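Quick question, first post here. What does this chain look like in 3D?
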Amino acid sequence: MKNLFLPLLLSVVIVACQSPKQEITLDANPAAEGFDVEHSDPAAIELADSVMKAQGGRKAWDETRFISWNFFGRRNLVWDKQEAKVRIESLPDSTLYLLDMKTGTGRVRVRGIELTEADRIG
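> Answer (accepted):
Ran it through. Tokens below.
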């Protein structure tokens, strides 16, 4: 009996000390409603899942309100996920765009002056 106990104990200790594999599962990043998994590129899904995991997981993403970034020193963007609004500041020409993605409306300012005439905005 002693001869069986030691190998069994060592096996349990070895298994218990191993770090668990961190697998990306559908539960970790569930597909959005209406997402077509069947016709999507598996490599793209894997990339999206890895990005979601790298930023802290679905819960962290869902709880993030503001995201900001800069495009090559030329544009600053701030996205308010909760309100579905975007602020884009074009640095070279001092243009500011304020967009409401829920309504599809927005405002534009060039060098501090708001453009209100449709022919000047488009």
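The longest strand covers residues 66-71.
Residues 65-122 form one domain.
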